[in-house]
Amino acid sequence: MSLIYCRHGRTQWNDLGTLQGTFDSPLTDTGKKQAYESGRLAAPHSPQLIYCSELKRARDSAELANLSLCVPVLTSPLLNERCFGALQGLDRTTHPKWWQAYTGRDQQDCMAIPGSEAASAVACRIGAFWTEMREMHGDTRILVVGHGEWLKIALSLAWGLSPWSGAPPLPDNGQVWRLEEMRELMPQQQSA
Fold first, then answer.
1. Looking at 81, 117, 147, 149, which residue is catalytic?
2. Model confidence pTM above 0.90
3. In whole angstroms, what is the distance from residue 129 CA to residue 54 CA?
4. Which of 78, 84, 109, 127 has the most crowded Cβ, counting Cβ within 10 A?
5. Count of domains forming the chain
6. Residue 87: CB partners within 8 Å, gap ≥ 6?
7. Annotated catalytic, 117?
8. What is the pLDDT of residues 38-53, one digit of tens each?
9. Is residue 137 annotated as a catalytic residue, yes or no?
């Protein structure tokens, strides 16, 4: 199994600084271009399938990427973004304590935000996804279109760090990469 990862294209809420989590907002024109370009960037890896989260911004990004790839597109709830509970749909002008908890999410498993999902729960979904892909698709090359926090946690796991590690960078919207290619960004103490 070979997985190529891509973060969905930029959305209206990304532009407004509104936290999405499991909520959705439409792709911007820039986001649509990023999503289309991600398909062109993934093409040299020759993906045979695209998997994306069930959230509309990821599905729309996958469909735009697929204009260059022409492969089946499947969804999985295991790829859905981390739930940020009561903070979803809000901007930074509201509930400063919740935003403080969100900012500190890289220092602990759980956030002090009602209804939020623990990083370890996302890590369990990531592990289940990886297992499912190995069992169902063997040597298939798959483009995974997902979300920033999900991808950050996946990188932490690949680097042998805690799921809530703040070490991995947040992938850019439309960025395409393989875990192996991200090794150069691994913190020095982990690469020895």
1. 81
2. yes
3. 14
4. 84
5. 1
6. 19, 21, 95, 98, 99, 102, 113, 116
7. no
8. 999 999 999 999 999 9
9. no
